[in-house]
Amino acid sequence: MKTIFITGANKGIGFEMARKLALLGHRVVLGGRSKDRLEAARKRLLEKNIDVDYIEMDVNVPGSITHASEVFLSIFGELDVLINNAAVLLDQDKQLSLDPSDVFDQTFRTNVLGPLLVARAFIPLLNRPGRIINISSQGGSMTDSVGGWSPAYCASKTALNGITRQLAHELSSKQISVNAVHPGWVRTDMGGPSAARDVEKGAETPVWLAVTADQAKTGSFFMDKKEIPW
Ligand SMILES: NC(=O)c1ccc[n+]([C@@H]2O[C@H](COP(=O)([O-])OP(=O)(O)OC[C@H]3O[C@@H](n4cnc5c(N)ncnc54)[C@H](OP(=O)(O)O)[C@@H]3O)[C@@H](O)[C@H]2O)c1
After folding, report:
1. What is the pTM of this model?
2. Which of 6, 9, 61, 122 is the most exposed place for a label (fewest CB within 10 A)?
3. Distances (CA, A) of 83 to 18, 47, 141, 143, 147
4. How far apart are alpha carbons 136 and 180 in whole angstroms?
5. What is the SS3 assignment for 221?
6. What CATH number is attached to the domain comprising 159?
7. 11-38 pLDDT, tens digit each
8. Which domain holds residue 17?
9. Per-residue confidence (pLDDT) for residue 101, from 0 to 100
10. Residue among 33, 54, 154 to mutate when testing ligand 1 (max atoms within 8 A of CB)
11. Secondary structure letter of residue 166 according to DSSP
12. Is the minimum distance from the CB of 183 to ligand 1 under 6 angstroms?
């Protein structure tokens, strides 16, 4: 049984990963910024006889991350897998060259600085071997052509991919693997109702990376359990 912490797990792909991993018998801790939404998520799983824990953590607030890591340590004592899933895609994210609001700052705070600070705070808790999985997006790809949609979001995932590779390099001697995943275009609040995939399919590869994939594989970008180009 592994202990697994998933950020932004009160809904969407994070919630589905939690459901799948708990069903497989792992101890799953949901992270989220709202106690009410976390409690509601826990109840939804309990109704299906799936028990999970949760910890409040806003990935935009460094103090909240530090506090959550301390609470996590005192309650659970250890961690095997950290899944950095929380992210935002803001409606106003239309152009990098014209950004009168702080869309870029907000996006990078949540999608880039957040996962890095969470990783820093939770690495000391990670068992060896341990795993970090960053939920990224093909929108951040440096090999695909630029589609022009949500540029701050796409650039934030490019940055997250860069962080994934750097952390993988730094942590390879500590037996901690660090990988990124593109879940596909998934029907969630973020992906919208027209998306091609359901959450079950979206959660499949991160769940595989969390508990089944070769631990030695690190510094890679995955989709559908296969490596894809950065
Ligand atoms: N859906 C897609 O098509 C798609 C495609 C490629 C990649 N992804 C990636 O997959 C991951 C999950 O996306 P999703 O589609 O499941 O999105 P979602 O349904 O919008 O869920 C996002 C989760 O992140 C949480 N979150 C946002 N800001 C946070 C913060 N500051 N602190 C803590 N939690 C925060 C949300 O919590 P609240 O409920 O409190 O807002 C929610 O639980 C994201 O990394 C996303 O970029 C999604």
Report:
1. 0.98
2. 61
3. 10, 24, 20, 25, 27
4. 6
5. strand
6. 3.40.50.720
7. 999 999 999 999 999 999 999 999 999 9
8. 3-227
9. 82
10. 33
11. H
12. yes
